[in-house]
Specification:
Elements (H helix, E strand, L loop, with lengths): L9 H14 L19 E2 L8 E3 L9 H11 L9 H5 L20 E2 L5 E5 L3 E4 L6 E8 L5 E7 L2 E4 L8 E8 L5 E8 L6 E5 L5 H18 L2 E5 L5 H4 L7 E3 L1 H7 L7 E4 L16 H4 L3 H7 L23 E5 L14 H11 L3 E4 L5 E4 L2 E4 L5 E2 L6 H9 L4 E3 L3 H8 L4 E4 L14 E2 L35 H4 L3 H13 L1
Parallel strand pairs: 4-14, 11-12, 11-14, 12-13, 15-16, 15-20, 16-19, 20-21, 21-22
Antiparallel strand pairs: 1-2, 2-8, 3-4, 4-5, 5-8, 6-7, 6-9, 9-10, 17-18
Helix pairs in contact: 1-2, 4-8, 4-11, 9-13
Length: 493
């Protein structure tokens, strides 16, 4: 999991809270009319059920710095802001990281006459033109719950829902004349059938992409949508030939083709650590699992399903029986930190007649004085290899042994038996495997604890026991015996 889509803008969040509190007094219930907001700013308004952003203007208006920060805190995917807290605390210049997701078009993409535009790109968005006489009345509903989410009368406004995940929105717009005459001029229920829908996956994260992609497919099949999925160009070759009905593009390709400017709806998948208001996700991903959060965001069943990978037709890479391993990870808490664990496992496998093939990207990885090496006795197939080559090794392997990393998800998709060693994540965080190894007698599952915040800038992150003798005990105390006993089950089968 890369830090690209996990970082947050703490200052913006604080400013958003201040702005919301300042304007909350204007709205007392979902059906209370609100005064028009000055066109100089798009101000978030609070209500019991929803907090749409409303601005007065028929055309896109300039956004004040405060409103821009509020919008960033409320709805921007985490990781889009560059000046992270950690960088500030370390006295570093803020990094110029590329946004994790392409933004929604400035103006809604769908027209319904009367100068009104609407779409569902990162939430419901309705643009009402300015008028000098009479007013507009807009009602925004959740069609599945029956709740009125927003009610407003204005003489021209841009309305955007506070929720950016899939909600079956209903829109109703009434023309209220100066003499009080009313006429409903537009109603619409969100329906993605035969519509252009963009689903964005942040780049640079192999495991996350493979975990989420089956839910993109499920959305396309259940909704009947024409889905364009934006993802890393490095992962496309492993997926594209098995999903002919979904268009796979990189963000750069989508920008060039102006895909987002034609979209009826856009949804962004990610791990939103600091989304306390559930703007991007209906439930915290730490409660439901890394992969299942995509089902909740897209409004489809969270039941897990492996991705259908493009399997190799080249046959076995070696004739002997072998087991693939992957030991490296992005932070130390993800490693199997038992000092003799891998040596014991490799020795056991070789005594049983298996060759042990390491398919990590790097033979050595770490930082400072901590470096993790390829296990002694394993065969080195590390390097910047195509994913299709990794799939070939995995699909013919007797088993894969690794930590909670992207290669474990790749092995799952290749149909390989996965022995997963992890203490910092709860087993519900990953896919179901009968060969999950965790020691419940130690501290465990900090990744899935919403009370602690994962720090991508701290390679030695251990939120409960850092700099104590108990650091990384969650995996240090997973013994070689425990893993070997699990491997025995694989061999017996």
């Amino acid at each position: 999991m890369s830090s690209l889509h996990h970082a947050s803008d703490v200052a913006a969040a604080a400013e958003f809270a201040k702005v919301s509190a300042a304007v909350a007094k204007f709205v007392q219930s979902p059906v209370t009319a609100t005064p028009s907001v000055p066109s100089s700013a798009s101000t978030p308004l609070s209500s019991p059920l929803s907090a749409p952003v409303v601005s007065s203007a028929s055309e896109p208006q300039p956004v004040s710095p405060v409103a821009a920060m509020a919008a960033s805190a409320a709805a921007a995917p985490l990781g889009q802001t560059a000046d992270t807290k950690a960088e500030k605390e370390e006295g570093k210049e803020p990094s110029k990281a590329k946004p994790a997701y392409l933004p929604a078009p400035q103006s809604p993409t769908q027209s319904c006459g009367h100068g009104i535009r609407y779409d569902f790109n990162m939430g419901a968005r309705i643009q009402l033109p300015n008028r000098s006489e009479g007013k507009w009345r807009i009602v925004l509903r959740d069609l599945d719950t029956g709740n009125i989410l927003f009610f407003n009368e204005n003489t021209g406004a841009m309305v955007a829902s506070s929720k950016r995940y899939y909600v079956r929105f209903g829109i109703e717009i009434t023309d209220v004349q100066a003499d009080g005459t009313e006429k409903i001029i537009f109603t619409h229920e969100l329906d993605c059938r035969n519509k252009e829908v963009v689903i964005q996956l942040p780049v640079g994260t192999l495991g996350d992409t493979l975990a989420w992609f089956p839910y993109v497919v499920r959305f396309a099949e259940e909704r009947g949508a024409r889905v364009t999925c934006l993802l890393s160009g490095l992962i496309k070759p492993a997926l594209m030939n098995d999903y002919p009905n979904i268009r796979l593009l990189t963000s750069e390709e989508a920008e060039k083709e102006k895909v987002c400017e034609k979209a009826y709806a856009t949804y962004c998948l990610g791990l939103f650590f600091d989304d306390a208001e559930n703007v991007q996700q209906p439930t915290d991903f730490r409660f439901v699992g890394l992969h299942r959060t995509a089902g909740y965001i897209l409004g489809v069943s969270p039941k897990e399903e492996p991705p259908r990978l493009l399997l190799s037709k080249e046959g076995r890479p070696i004739k002997e029986k072998y087991v693939c391993i992957a030991v490296q990870a992005s932070t130390q808490c993800k490693y199997w930190n038992n000092p003799g664990g891998w040596r014991e496992v490799v020795t056991f496998l070789k005594e049983k007649g298996y060759r042990v093939i390491c398919i990590d990207q790097k033979p050595i990885h770490g930082t400072g004085v901590v470096w993790n090496h390829i296990p002694y006795g394993s065969e080195d197939q590390t390097g910047d290899r195509p994913l299709t080559e990794r799939i070939r090794w995995l699909q013919h392997a007797e088993a894969f042994i690794g930590v909670s990393s992207g290669l474990a998800w790749l092995a799952w998709g290749a149909g390989t038996k996965v022995v997963m060693i992890s203490g910092f994540t709860h087993p519900t965080n990953e896919f179901e495997t009968p060969y999950r190894v965790i020691n419940w007698h130690t501290c465990n599952s900090c990744w899935n604890d919403p009370r602690v915040r994962f720090d991508h800038h701290n390679f030695m992150w251990c939120p409960r026991h850092e700099n104590t003798p108990r650091q990384f005990e969650c995996s240090r105390l997973i013994t070689g015996k425990q893993v070997i006993d699990t491997l025995e089950k694989v061999i017996e089968e």
